[in-house]
Amino acid sequence: MHIRKGDMVQVVSGDDSGTRGTVMSVDRKNGKVVIEGVNKVYKHVKRGHPKSPSGGRLHKELAIDASNVMLICPKTNKPTRVGIKINTDGSKELIAKRSGVAIRQVMQTKKS
Q1: Which end of the chain is more exposed for a tag (fewer CB within 10 A), N or C?
Q2: What is the mean pLDDT of the chain?
Q3: SS3 (DSSP) at 57
Q4: Rounded to whole angstroms, how far apart are CA atoms 33 and 79?
């Protein structure tokens, strides 16, 4: 998955389409991401709950599918597809297809 915690993304489909936010967590096994301020729901809690001792409704963000979000291009500030570029020294970079600008380094795993 090309999305990581802390990335700036935009929702491209669903009820929150067009909304931008920062990725709070990633579930690689199920292909889901939790984005700050997106897919908010109310969670009703009883009195005496640690987060809300008086009870009531808490706002909570639920996960959405990773295929419904796109990374934001740092140069154009628009959603973009991404690719991996292999440099001459063997290192890999995640690049924006829209502008060709590097988004971040891709971690390499050593095989022994």
Answers
A1: C
A2: 89
A3: strand
A4: 16
Count the neighbouring beta carbons within 10 Å of the beta carbon of residue 107: 7
Q: How far apart are CA 51 and CA 53, in angstroms?
A: 6
Centre a 10 Å sphere on the Cβ of residue 76 and count the other Cβ atoms it contains: 12
3-state secondary structure of 66: helix
User: What is the spatial distance between Cα 8 and Cα 71, in angstroms, rounded to a whole number?
Assistant: 6
Report the percentage of the chain scoring pLDDT > 70: 95
> How far apart, in whole angstroms, are the C-alpha atoms of residue 67 and residue 47?
38
**Which 3 state secondary structure label does DSSP give 93?**
strand
Retrieve residue 2's tokens: 């090309």
Alpha-carbon torsion, ordered 24, 6, 77, 84, to 10 deg: -120
Q: Beta-carbon neighbour count of residue 32 at 10 Å?
A: 17
Residue type, 20: R
Q: List beta partners, residue 32.
A: 27, 65
**pTM for this prediction:** 0.80
